[in-house]
Write a structure and sequence with these properties.
The chain is mainly alpha-helical. It contains seven helices and no strands. The N and C termini lie far apart (about 45 Å).
């Protein structure tokens, strides 16, 4: 079952269960995917976006909500922060398991050796390999500096 089917079946189930908050989050996910589909069609891709792109969309949604939750907490709005965290938990159901720090370090080492990377100039190649294999499984914002350190050492 591809990502869209999983999301749509979860949406239908949320409707049946009358789970209002879950339903609204699933609708947000669908809207984001459809938005990206429209953009892809404008670029000549009639099929829309694939599963890898859907994972990227979901990852971006999680990151946005985590940042919003932090901002709400700093502003003393714990109710809104909790709402954002609830959305994150629904979105994360569709993401693959996140890699722990050791697994990320191992994946980085593997990608560097596979790419034959020797200097900072090869960073793009390494990051491309990691994004291809581990989309949705690691935070590439945190992985980038790790790759840079390894290649500049």
């Amino acid at each position: 079952m591809d990502m869209r089917e999983r999301i749509n079946s979860a949406l239908k189930q949320a409707m049946k269960d009358k789970a209002k908050d879950r339903l609204s989050t699933l609708r947000l996910i669908n809207a984001a995917i459809k938005d990206r589909d429209i953009a892809a069609r404008g670029d000549g891709n009639e099929a829309g976006v694939g599963d890898a792109e859907v994972l990227a969309i979901l990852g971006k949604m999680v990151k946005q909500r985590q940042e919003s939750a932090r901002a709400y907490e700093e502003g003393g709005r714990l109710d809104l922060a909790e709402s954002e965290r609830a959305e994150v938990s629904v979105i994360e159901e569709f993401l693959p398991k996140q890699l722990n720090d050791d697994e990320v370090a191992e994946a980085v080492s593997e990608a560097i050796s596979e790419a034959g990377a020797e200097s900072i100039r090869d960073m793009g190649k390494v990051m491309g390999m990691l994004k291809e294999k581990y989309t949705g499984q690691m935070d590439f914002g945190a992985v980038g500096p790790m790759v840079k350190d390894r290649l500049s050492a």
